[in-house]
Amino acid sequence: MKPKGKATSFDIAHFAGVSQSTVSRALRNSPLVNEETRRRVWEVAKQLNYKVDKNASNLRTQQSSTLALLLFEDPTGDESQINPFFLNMLGSITRACAKQGYDLLVSFQSTSQDWRADYEDSHRADGIILLGYGDYMDYQSRLQQLLSQDTKFVCWGATVDGREDLTVSCDNYGGGKLAAEHLLQQNRSQYVFIGDASDHSPEFFARFKGFRDTLTAQGLALPERQIANAISTEESGYHATRSLLANNIQFDALFAASDLIAIGALKALKEAGKDVPGDVAVIGFDNIAAASFISPALTTVQQNTTLAGQMLVNNLLNLIKGETVTDTLLPPKLIVRKSA
Amino acid sequence: MKPKGKATSFDIAHFAGVSQSTVSRALRNSPLVNEETRRRVWEVAKQLNYKVDKNASNLRTQQSSTLALLLFEDPTGDESQINPFFLNMLGSITRACAKQGYDLLVSFQSTSQDWRADYEDSHRADGIILLGYGDYMDYQSRLQQLLSQDTKFVCWGATVDGREDLTVSCDNYGGGKLAAEHLLQQNRSQYVFIGDASDHSPEFFARFKGFRDTLTAQGLALPERQIANAISTEESGYHATRSLLANNIQFDALFAASDLIAIGALKALKEAGKDVPGDVAVIGFDNIAAASFISPALTTVQQNTTLAGQMLVNNLLNLIKGETVTDTLLPPKLIVRKSA
DNA sequence: CAACATTATGACACCGGTGTCAGATGGAGG
DNA sequence: CCTCCATCTGACACCGGTGTCATAATGTTG
């Protein structure tokens, strides 16, 4: 036939001997169109390798069957490495989208800059998923702006002031508790926490609270000096641990707010000649792939990323459909390996 | 003003007291429009939080400023884990797209099923990036179909019959050579290769050839029995190594076609009581994050993913613009750590 | 002052679908 | 034979921009 340019529904109409309207209906399997006609139209469409023009279709129907994912990175200088945990989430979100027949637009955002969250305004996406370690609290005003514009979005980790339903997250408090309980069972006596014990990062803070509260309930204190700050990188965990050791803090149990931090801690401990888990038991959080490779294999609190991705996508789609959504807390799970 | 629904250029026109045509021109900074008018239009647009409707715009201009990434996974049963190397690539591709002002649609494809490569046909993307370990050779016919439809695409790793310009890849042959040379320098005498020495996976095969050819040039053979097949997973590398050991193959140097395979091999060697690098030197390929965490830290051949992402995006954009593109081979780099 | 170039703007067709409405057709029922 | 209804189809407006063309307003030159 005519191979000039891409085929349109008018071309199909021409070859099938029907009107363009009928082509449109036939291809969407409308019950209004005759069986024989439908067959013929599909036949021609296949021959011409016709695909509906999404731009035209979206324009008319005012929806894009596309979601946008904004991935917030920790502000490390290093551009190339992304936290594997988020990459896992990305994977499960992509899959969840595909399963629902949605496409996914991915973009990386730096927390330090202004975000590009205009995917909905420009009709490129029906809704937005915000993914990060929740440390975009400073951007609460941006979130409120999204709300006021009636932009549909859901967040991982971070809470949105005044709204309980837009957040999907792991039960970080419960996860901290799991870690504390496991260490308590081993009769460890001197605990340290490495992460962020301020409420700057809501997720890390919840893990910290769950951990500390469980210890205090057993009469064990967690004084200021046994807490070290770190962002979620191996580097940062390494240095935080070194400074604890340099300050002669005694400890036989270490809870890191993320696996990357824990991996950095293991390195520092090994360098200091400490045996893990003999001298110090170490527990991480996330269960990234590297946790099982490293030696000693890392005991950690697992987040169910597959489920998380599904919940984010499902909640967002429900939000778009105008249904009410309830906030979602996913249960963490302790994965016991060698380090504790 | 009127907060009902999203603002259109007609709304802007109304409030700015000009025609819609002028709004469109003003917002795209056309030189045809008066400075004062432009200012006023921008002012109103900002107030109404106006964003150009991408569907309308794309429909009219017949381009989407969007690229699509098809990520082919190794056919492992496990859905949740993706090869970290590809996730790195995904990261750099995303960044490269953003830098060029393009959005990126991401989708995972299973090599075993039919792909969904209709992103271009449906005008959702201007071009497609295919990313995988090149083991989609069986799909050469699909690639040819894409070619015949005049779909713009570039591939990582895989070659496209009859076209040299659509592929960006690492110099895998050179990488295999680097590995062999490094091991030769250490006077290792008995070599094994774990990966895929058939040409099913073109990338692995090239690494194998570079490795073997360098050895043969030094008078060292690499007989069939010193080659074990594995796909790119830790699991697979582990089992391949175990079977080598079980068959009493003697070796003091191991080259794995990917880091995941190498990590699995390290595990098997450790279990067998072999010291690395004392008894066996191990070299991997890719330089994924886990390579530096694992103990002993893995010596490996690095692929420059940042550059790779940029080249893929740039080549694809040039292809779309109708410019000629030359094929691209990226130089690998040996990262020496503890394992060899 | 006529003739013409320059600048700024509006009217309008167009991109390729979707949804609504009117109308053609054919069979059933009175 | 006429009416009524169910079934199927085509004409047409519409989504919200972009690009072309015509035209008004202003300045420039002989």
UniProtKB/TrEMBL annotation, chains A, B:
GO terms for molecular function: DNA-binding transcription factor activity; transcription cis-regulatory region binding. InterPro entries: HTH_LacI, LacI/GalR-like_sensor, Lambda_DNA-bd_dom_sf, Peripla_BP_I. Pfam families: LacI (PF00356), Peripla_BP_3 (PF13377). SUPFAM superfamilies: lambda repressor-like DNA-binding domains, Periplasmic binding protein-like I. SMART domains: HTH_LACI. Keywords: DNA-binding, Transcription, Transcription regulation. Residues 7-61 form the HTH lacI-type domain. PANTHER family: ALANINE RACEMASE (PTHR30146:SF120), LACI-RELATED TRANSCRIPTIONAL REPRESSOR (PTHR30146). This is LacI family transcriptional regulator.
